[in-house]
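Example 254, ligand S-adenosylmethionine.
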Amino acid sequence: MTSSPSPLHDQIQRYYTTRVLQKESCCSSSSCCSTRDAHPALPFAHLPAEEQPISFGCGDPLLIAELQPGQVVLDLGSGTGYDCFLAAKQVGESGKVIGVDMTPQMILQATQTAQRLGLSNVEFRLGYLENLPLDSNSVDVIISNCVINLTPDKPQVLSEAYRVLKPGGKLAITDVICLQPLSAELRQDLEAWAACIAGAITKDEFSQILAAVGFRDIQIVLSDPAPLSLNPEAERDFMENAQRVVSALIWARK
Ligand SMILES: C[S@@+](CC[C@H](N)C(=O)[O-])C[C@H]1O[C@@H](n2cnc3c(N)ncnc32)[C@H](O)[C@@H]1O
């Protein structure tokens, strides 16, 4: 892996290393780190609780991914592999799922879980989303769950997503969106970035970046506008500033 693109990447890496080692979700309330009732038959349900992957996501990208057997799927910021294992079940043994994440502890844990599950159609690669370790035009569907908000250079990350998608391929992600631009002060709070708040952009900004990169048929659907927060004190500040971050389903085609 190339050297860290920025101090923010290092901060986020440290944050998620701690979370995964302590088996903590990334934030304290509502839309983020949601429970995943939509998948009652989890393919890892038989593993002991301490070996199960943790979802650090803010939604369910598989609701919009429309995966088919045999497809190649890429998960941007795959974490402990939660969505990858669900996707692997859907694409079957003739398909393949590749998870990319910059945090070594995430890759280690996800790889160990894949081995425990005996899955040969899932692979985890250490790398930055800004410089994806994949060939151009090689992926049918890209999923991602609560990750793009963490990246400081969203046009670069979404350009890379576009590059590796096959023509006609689908981007299907969940992420957090702010209802109005966040304050400059909040944007400089690295802890709030790492907790999936300060890096959120508006629906219009997200849509404009996707269009500028070349995506078409762009759809962004916001969830219930429940606030996300770091802790009760941060939540109070957040509410007082009238700054809201909500979960969204986002999809588009190359
Ligand atoms: C909020 S967690 C979500 C993990 C997973 N998608 C899930 O739903 O459980 C964010 C993940 O994205 C990874 N990440 C954040 N920025 C990244 C970047 N620029 N390149 C690669 N991975 C990144 C982090 O290491 C972390 O594992």
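Summary: The first strand starts at residue 72 and ends at 76.
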